């Protein structure tokens, strides 16, 4: 366990979290650049995007190469970044007061889900989505990375669990809860899954709502396996989930603090330019003469200017903005670029394709029998001004305590389809996936423009075959149910078969792109949703739920027993995005529609890498924050190794 003195020092150094620039007096933030006159003539590395992954890379490069300069270009600003439940909020799970800026994307109507549109948010501030997310800090399962290599082939072997686990460990400093908290709530963990010393923090909160154990106990009564630790590669069952907060102050821990403010005062080679947009990249002397020139637009003056990189350009602008930069640069599907009136520079059909996100319906119930008097406090206690005042005072203590140390959830169920559905149903779903490939009808489930590209069809075939095998694995989760309190649960479908797109708004190409989720466009997805809902309804019959008179509200038994009615219910209660978009510049071979290779270099382009959640081949069985840090660590490691090797090759030695 970290010493109390060490944690106090960390809290004092990084106590900026509550309001990093409210006064503008914090030294790290005063070094931020806001105009071109403050920039150097050129840089060694230019990173487009000051989010979770981009800032991780910038931190590691500036540390490893003190003689090399790094510029991070960020669209957003430095802003206060409260947690999901910080004072003065009084509604747990409500809108965050004073939240940093974020992108708001609404998808095109989804014709297979009653033409409803999906909403997804992404961070538009220094720190990216780690500065605005739900602070749920889980990792994928080991089988997720087996899935990647099954799709991409032997080339993705370096991205298996053994290849990523060291970077998960490096990317975060986990702090054990106190013995008192452990005794009260029963947290379990395994420190062998951790070991980092970076100022990105995770821990378990020293408070849970009093009804938290109800759902955990109900799952146990359904014979769900209870895992001691789910960050070590195995997530089949019931997991305790840490949250991304400082263990002493309980303030949000995010990349803007841990990978910029905490390190930049000693890094004269680290520049951060805010309120600027990377519009495109160009290869004025040909694609084999990179790195490319980066065109940038000031969001204040609207002037355009170029930034040159001597070593590399790294796109880390996120799942939506990274493909947008490439498309504006003439890099992407040739048929789309022709329709858009953009001159083709390099044909890569996977750019902006393969869009995926976690989605799912909900269920709800009521308790008709009273709770024990000892089951207190519940979120309703926040209606009491005295309780709120005490909670606020507790939050301001060192270490912080009380309800304001909470984020959105600390328990989650992860289960495979083979453990929820009958063996016959599970096999039939996998069989349908294989039949789509053998019948050569997979293209019909892709966006119309994607069907013209054999590479995208081949990549989708590979995904279907790998996912069919994945669905049959009893250790491979297809369902997540996070839990904190209350009488409702969301059923998160972890591995959808539907694929969407990110495309430019052609009437205003520098504005937000247009998303088409195409949710449930592959009808097999609906079969899995139905299986998930039917399994979760079993909790009502457990002794714990019956003890409190649990009565189902939605869906009813009548609806649940009818496929058509239940499918209609799923569509009516669908959440189209749990804010985990990915995969729009996939790490796959070119012949399977890939945009980057295992080294994250863009196929066919020199001096250009991509490092953000757009490079994932398919969705993992997790939220994306912890993975985004690990990808940044692994990318930085690869870049450092390569440029160290080049320096040695020139006889300069190592740094």
Automatic annotation (TrEMBL):
GO molecular function: flavin adenine dinucleotide binding; oxidoreductase activity, acting on CH-OH group of donors
Gene3D superfamilies reported for this sequence: FAD/NAD(P)-binding domain, Glucose Oxidase, domain 3
UniProt name for this protein: GMC oxidoreductase
Residues the record marks as active site: 580 (proton donor), 623 (proton acceptor)
Signal peptide, first to last residue: 1-18
Positions bound to FAD: 52-53, 278
SUPFAM superfamilies referenced in this protein's UniProt entry, alphabetically: FAD-linked reductases, C-terminal domain, FAD/NAD(P)-binding domain
Cofactor: FAD
Keyword Signal part of the UniProt annotation: yes
TM annotation in the entry: none
GO biological process, one term: secondary metabolite biosynthetic process
Annotated ranges, domain Glucose-methanol-choline oxidoreductase N-terminal: 123-146
């Amino acid at each position: 366990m970290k010493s109390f003195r060490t944690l106090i020092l960390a809290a004092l150094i990084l106590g900026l979290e509550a309001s990093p620039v409210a006064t503008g007096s914090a030294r790290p933030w005063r070094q931020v650049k806001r105009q071109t006159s403050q920039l150097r003539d050129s840089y060694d590395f230019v990173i487009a995007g000051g989010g979770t992954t981009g800032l991780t890379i910038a931190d590691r490069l500036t540390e490893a190469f003190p003689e090399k300069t790094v510029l991070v270009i960020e669209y957003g600003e430095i802003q206060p970044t409260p947690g999901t439940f910080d004072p003065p909020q009084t509604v747990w799970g409500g809108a965050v007061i004073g939240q940093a800026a974020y992108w708001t994307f609404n998808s095109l109507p989804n014709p297979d889900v009653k033409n409803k549109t999906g909403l997804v948010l992404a961070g538009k501030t220094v720190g990216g989505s780690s500065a605005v997310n739900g602070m749920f800090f889980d990792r994928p399962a080991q089988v997720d990375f087996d899935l990647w290599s099954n799709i991409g082939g032997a080339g993705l072997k370096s991205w298996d669990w053994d290849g990523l686990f060291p970077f998960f460990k490096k990317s975060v400093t986990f702090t054990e809860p106190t013995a008192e908290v452990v005794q009260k709530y029963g947290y379990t963990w395994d420190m062998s899954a951790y070991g980092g010393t970076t100022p990105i923090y995770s821990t378990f909160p020293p408070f849970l709502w009093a009804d938290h154990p109800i759902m955990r106990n109900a799952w146990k009564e359904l014979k769900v396996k209870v895992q001691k630790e789910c960050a070590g590669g195995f997530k089949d069952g019931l997991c305790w989930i840490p949250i991304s907060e400082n263990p002493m102050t309980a303030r949000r821990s995010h990349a803007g603090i841990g990978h910029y403010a905490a390190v930049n005062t000693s890094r004269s080679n680290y520049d951060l330019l805010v309120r600027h947009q990377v519009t495109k990249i160009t290869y004025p002397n040909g694609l084999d003469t990179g790195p490319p020139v980066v065109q940038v637009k000031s969001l204040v003056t609207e002037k355009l200017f170029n930034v040159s990189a001597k070593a590399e350009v790294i796109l880390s602008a996120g799942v939506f903005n990274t493909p947008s930069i490439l498309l504006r640069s003439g890099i992407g599907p040739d048929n789309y670029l022709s329709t858009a009136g953009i001159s083709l520079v390099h044909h890569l059909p996977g750019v902006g394709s393969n869009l995926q996100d976690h989605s799912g319906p909900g269920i709800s119930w009521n308790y008709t029998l009273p709770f024990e008097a000892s089951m207190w406090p519940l979120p309703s206690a926040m209606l009491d001004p005295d309780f709120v005042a005490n909670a606020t005072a507790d939050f301001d203590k060192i270490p912080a305590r009380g309800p304001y140390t909470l984020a959105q959830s600390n328990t989650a169920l992860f289960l495979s389809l083979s453990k929820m559905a009958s063996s016959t149903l599970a096999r039939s779903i996998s069989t349908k996936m294989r039949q789509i490939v053998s019948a050569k009808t997979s293209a019909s489930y892709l966006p119309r423009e994607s069907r013209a590209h054999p590479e995208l069809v081949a990549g989708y075939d590979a995904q279907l075959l790998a996912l069919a095998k994945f669905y049959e694995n009893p250790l491979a989760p297809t369902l997540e149910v996070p839990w904190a309190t209350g009488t409702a649960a969301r059923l998160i479908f972890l591995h959808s078969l539907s694929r969407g797109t990110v495309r430019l708004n052609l009437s205003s190409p520098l504005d937000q792109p247009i998303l088409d989720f195409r949710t449930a466009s592959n009808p097999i997805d609906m079969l899995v949703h139905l299986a998930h809902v039917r399994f979760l309804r079993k909790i009502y019959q457990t002794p714990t739920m019956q003890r409190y008179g649990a009565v189902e509200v939605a869906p009813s038994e009548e609806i649940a027993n009818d496929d058509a009615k239940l499918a209609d219910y799923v569509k009516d209660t669908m959440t189209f995005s749990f804010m985990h978009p990915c995969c729009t510049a996939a790490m796959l071979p070119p012949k399977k529609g890939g945009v980057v290779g295992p080294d994250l270099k863009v196929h066919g382009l020199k001096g250009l890498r991509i490092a953000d959640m757009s490079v994932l081949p398919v969705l993992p069985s997790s939220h994306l924050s912890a993975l985004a840090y690990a990808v940044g660590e692994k990318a930085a490691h690869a870049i450092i190794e390569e440029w160290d090797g080049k320096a040695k090759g020139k006889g300069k030695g190592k740094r």
